[in-house]
Design brief:
The chain is mainly beta. The protein is 5% helix and 22% strand. Strands 4-1-5 form a 3-stranded antiparallel sheet, with no helix packed on it.
């Protein structure tokens, strides 16, 4: 017997209707088990909110002010004939 479970939508997808990221989907577990690892995340009864998905850390921005390291090809050597 399957049970009705609440899921947090991690990726937009088209189910019984179109779901956007961050929506809550209520469905039978056997109907959406193929979506669980990447598209849906089960909302546990103890947390009761979608906070874990929003708490993901962002990557650090690249520091574009750093100077690129010099390489051997950039050196200007004179020709052998001079």
């Amino acid at each position: 017997m399957s049970k009705i479970v609440n899921y947090l939508v991690l990726r937009p997808h088209d189910g019984d209707r179109f779901y956007n990221e961050g929506d809550t989907r209520t469905a039978r577990d056997v109907d959406v088990k193929h979506l669980l690892p990447n598209t849906l995340e089960e909302i546990s009864e103890t947390s009761g909110s979608a906070a874990p998905a929003a708490a993901k850390a962002e990557t650090a921005p690249l520091n574009k002010a750093e100077v690129a390291p010099a390489n051997k090809a950039a050196s200007q050597r004179g020709s052998k004939g001079k």
